[in-house]
Design a protein that fits this description.
4 copies of one chain form a homotetramer. The first copy, chain A, is of the alpha+beta class and 214 residues long. Chain A has helices spanning 2-21, 81-91, 102-110, 149-162, 183-213; strands at 31-37, 42-46, 60-63, 95-99, 116-120, 137-143, 168-171, 175-180. In chain A, helix 4 links the parallel strand 6 and strand 7. The radius of gyration of chain A is 17 Å and the shape is globular. Chains in contact: A-B, A-C, B-D, C-D.
Chain lengths: 214, 214, 214, 214
Amino acid sequence: MVEQFEEMATGIVSVARGFYARGWLLGTSGNLSAVVQREPLRLAITASGVDKGELSSEQVILIDEDARLLNEYPGKPSDESLLHTCIAKQRGAGAVLHTHSIWNTILSDLYANDGGVRIEGYEMLKGLAGVRTHEHSEWLPIVDNSQDMPALAETVSKILNEHPSAHGFLIRRHGLYAWGENLAQAKRHVEILEFLLEAMGRAIEIKQSELNRG
Amino acid sequence: MVEQFEEMATGIVSVARGFYARGWLLGTSGNLSAVVQREPLRLAITASGVDKGELSSEQVILIDEDARLLNEYPGKPSDESLLHTCIAKQRGAGAVLHTHSIWNTILSDLYANDGGVRIEGYEMLKGLAGVRTHEHSEWLPIVDNSQDMPALAETVSKILNEHPSAHGFLIRRHGLYAWGENLAQAKRHVEILEFLLEAMGRAIEIKQSELNRG
Amino acid sequence: MVEQFEEMATGIVSVARGFYARGWLLGTSGNLSAVVQREPLRLAITASGVDKGELSSEQVILIDEDARLLNEYPGKPSDESLLHTCIAKQRGAGAVLHTHSIWNTILSDLYANDGGVRIEGYEMLKGLAGVRTHEHSEWLPIVDNSQDMPALAETVSKILNEHPSAHGFLIRRHGLYAWGENLAQAKRHVEILEFLLEAMGRAIEIKQSELNRG
Amino acid sequence: MVEQFEEMATGIVSVARGFYARGWLLGTSGNLSAVVQREPLRLAITASGVDKGELSSEQVILIDEDARLLNEYPGKPSDESLLHTCIAKQRGAGAVLHTHSIWNTILSDLYANDGGVRIEGYEMLKGLAGVRTHEHSEWLPIVDNSQDMPALAETVSKILNEHPSAHGFLIRRHGLYAWGENLAQAKRHVEILEFLLEAMGRAIEIKQSELNRG
């Protein structure tokens, strides 16, 4: 398991530095995890409060399914680790990535009253696992933010049940969670959802301007 | 031919990493190809579903004019390889590049009903092969998106015939195709068209705001 | 103290290059400092007029609490060094960072008549020291710009007194000051405040467009 | 002079790569030059049509005051080299930089009928040589674009005479020219002017949105 953990930690560091460069993990925000072992569940996950632009594999820790720290580390798991284990279990995900981007923050607020964002008609959607056509209609649920982690985990669990084909969800004014069967797929899903949220956000502005001219 | 293939693969990797950094190839989207041999046609092209930010030359494959895989590779050519061979043949292009950017996605939708985007009056246009003045008027055709690749290739072929001087085209809510006599020129064309689409998109927003101010 | 100074200089160089890449320190703008010794106060601070993208530790100088140069250096401390020593003393900060970003420039002007910007309801706020919930309401004071540094330092001192829990402040059409107990925390605070100012700025535009669509 | 030329070429390569990364020199656009010798005038300048992201010092050529190529090189000087020698002579500049950015393109068009852009009240202005206060009012003249280089050089010469304190000028829908007594100062001036044009462009959009909200 040690080797598997080290491989996951190295992969997490690489993804973290790339996402940080794009501004999706500023200010020590966000968390990245990958499953090291399924039974019993063991996750490699970024520790709480670490700078993702300077992340080292020593700052990736090992937790169990209740998000308890299993290896020696001078810090602690992030409170949100519970959401990672919840998604890993309920979706059978091999990796869970949580980003704080400008556009996911804005759209999670703009569409909060609708309970989610519908994304459809974009070729980019085909990059989501199981999607075969741009005519796919993706519903990205939005849940309210909360500091009560067990309660938030319960809400998330309910949302995952209600939307079995969702590839991610937003927490209002907080960020995006996406996952995949492994780190590469989870990274791909984040990039696609972040791209589509930005494209939709900018399209709202430009279409309005175009209408006004018209 | 091996040497030529390796040279093209190395060039494709370099362009891919640069475009990925700009956010034009996120989520394994997009494809890049270069002609290795003209008769019979042989293309070096990025394999399906590979991360362009971590692309290695081993992920660049060799295909024939019907987009069939010719070398050993554990994956497959992208479905869109057919568009690459179509452009390489019909335009005599030495390289074909396909990007998914925020701005080409938005403008391909905004002007879809016009059948294309007219770009004129910009100095940047002079970077397109054969263009000598900013007074040039470039018509960037837009075709509807489709998952029926042979049908889409036919549409593209028709568009290329109808617009013999076009330097690229857009697929609605999908992306940009541009090409050149070699990889360097194709890269230049993509950078110019992406720049101009972004400049036009942002100009729509700002001019409207300026008008409202009165 | 030499060792401590060199450690601070190295840290400042690293933060400066990262912020420069994000466009927050263009044109030799901005200043970064870290406390080397508390009693008497000694600060390591970027010299005046140096390119932050090519900053070397030789361009980080040592000053006393009146912003006088203490080590050999062919240039001089920035006029704004007085604000750094003021913040270091009054807040007990271990590091003070001053950035010139597009969004802090715009919002410092947009909300100048209100005397500050209220930021609330964002998860990102939890990255500010002592903040435990997104329901936190942060008041980011705005002071008028001035070239009279002693006068500006006095204004800043007054603002710091009036808003004892503020994590930063804006100078109108000028930039952001933020600080922390050490360089890592100050960097985190800058990233969080810059992120939130950009998110708020873009949200104003998009919400207006959405309203117009109606 | 060889040593001086090589030093300038190395400096130009470094600035070019940085500006390319920011998107200010896409598609082989833009030109960068530095004075190698004043009497008779000798300029090191980027050759025509080279990729600024992969610029090597071999692609920096030596020209005289009439923009004639003086060293061995398989290409030719850019047509716009005449503007560089004009500015070097008339302003006594040690370096001249010409960028094509999104925001300088848009604002050069938006304010073309006014004949220039007035920039005032920003702290960033203090980074322009000789400016001591944010209360400075900078007039950035805009000239119409033309492919008749001798005519354009004459217009530029006239504009430089009419606005002796201008630190740069825009060519409509084309780009920015700025200069300095050496490469470092010219780079600083470009960064400052690009920053201010972007800040002003975005401020127009956001203030309008804010007004509409009422």
